[in-house]
Design brief:
- InterPro entries: NnrS (IPR010266).
- It comes from Saccharospirillum salsuginis.
- This protein is mainly α.
- Helices cover 78% and strands 0% of the residues.
- The chain has two domains: 141 residues, no CATH class; 223 residues, no CATH class.
- The protein is built from 13 helices and no strands.
Length: 370
């Protein structure tokens, strides 16, 4: 359970450090440009969340190695970005994660579940490829291509994990109210999304952006259709599900708009943050709070707190989007608002998680079941 509070604390700190490093020359070298910022969002925060959610309870010795590898890779990348030291530490974390995770995922029988194996392998190898590419070329020459593939692979992971968290919980909540939810996992939609997003991630470095745009836009529409069929709007007593639904909505909208920008050759930087800030932020905070508080204290997350966190992340997302269109306020002011809202959300969550882990019962979380 320690991965979640530590990743949450890191997420709360990383954005102010990024903004400072963008502006001042004495900032952290690993956060001084968009390349380092994207690397930490995907492979620092993102992979840390995956480790906490999918691994479940492990031996203390193994978790110590994993945490040390994750922490060391963060430190080395922040001070020595894309160095061999960064590669070595990231390799320890990634290889340890895959060593335990891949055998666990391979027991799945359905192809939609087994696809997590190649997905996790690709997500684990991408940061190592990025460092090697930077060392060989002097710069991360393939940054845009690797970043685009990383974004789509993490979007696919959020489609899968978010759906597997929301669908059974929504079905149970509807059943408690005397209703039967027919559209649960929606395997055909899930399969289509796996093919669309997985295929787009694999081919996007080499094909025309218009083709990728069409595929990703269709995937975004399917995500929104899947969300609508869960009928979360009628579950007003389940704040945890409603907030997860908001995150899933950000994911669908972000994919749709990202596809449109690729199709029309518009700038996509602002839209990308609907996925990385809106979707990743809202889904990760909701799932961390839900898992940790239920496993340690046996209670659901406080509704008011969840709503405030979700609202803060919505402010962070919209402010980050507004920064690129220079609407009403200067860009720097919008960025400050976005960073403050993001860090407030994760700081509040971090307090919850540390208190739950320190004072709650012993976790028996087996990790995700497929």
């Amino acid at each position: 359970m320690w991965f979640f509070p530590l990743v949450s604390a890191y997420a709360a700190l990383i954005m102010p450090l990024t903004l400072y490093s963008f502006v001042y020359p004495d900032g952290l070298p690993g956060l001084a440009d968009r390349t380092g910022h994207a690397y930490e969002m995907f492979f620092g925060i993102g992979l840390g969340l995956v480790a906490g959610y999918l691994l479940g309870v492990q031996k203390r010795s193994f978790m110590t190695i994993l945490l040390v590898g994750w922490g060391a890779s963060r430190v080395t990348h922040l001070w020595f970005p894309f160095s061999w030291w960064s590669l070595a530490c990231q390799a320890v974390f990634v290889l340890a994660l895959l060593w335990r995770l891949v055998p666990k995922l391979r027991v799945a029988k359905k192809w939609r579940n087994r696809m997590l194996v190649p997905l996790m392998v690709m997500l684990g190898l991408l940061p190592l490829i990025a460092v090697v590419a930077a060392q060989l070329s002097g710069v991360w020459a393939q940054h845009n291509r690797l970043a685009g593939s990383s974004l789509l692979l993490f979007a696919l992971l959020m489609v899968y994990m978010g759906g597997r968290a929301i669908a059974p919980a929504a079905a149970g909540a509807h059943q408690e109210r005397g209703r039967d939810l027919q559209a649960r996992v929606q395997p055909r939609l899930e399969g289509a999304l796996i093919v669309l997003l997985g295929g787009a991630a694999l081919v996007q470095p080499w094909v025309r952006p218009e083709l990728v745009g069409v595929v990703v836009a269709i995937a975004g529409i399917l995500v929104l259709v899947r969300l609508a069929r869960w009928r979360l709007g009628s579950l007003w007593g389940r704040t945890d599900l409603l907030c997860l639904g908001v995150g899933y909505g950000w994911l669908g909208l972000g994919l749709l708009m990202f596809g449109v920008t690729r199709l029309l050759h518009w700038p996509s930087t602002a839209i990308l943050h609907m996925i990385t800030v809106g979707a990743l932020g809202t889904l990760s905070t909701g799932m961390m709070a839900r898992v940790v508080l239920r496993r340690t204290l046996g209670v659901p997350p406080p509704p008011v707190g969840l709503v405030l966190i979700t609202l803060c992340l919505a402010v962070a997302t919209l402010s980050r989007c507004a920064a690129d269109v220079h609407w009403l306020l200067p860009r720097a002011d919008w960025l400050r608002v976005s960073v403050a809202a993001w860090s407030t959300a994760y700081a509040g969550l971090t307090v919850w998680l540390f208190m739950a882990v320190l004072y709650g019962g012993k976790s028996t979380n087996p990790g995700v079941r497929l």
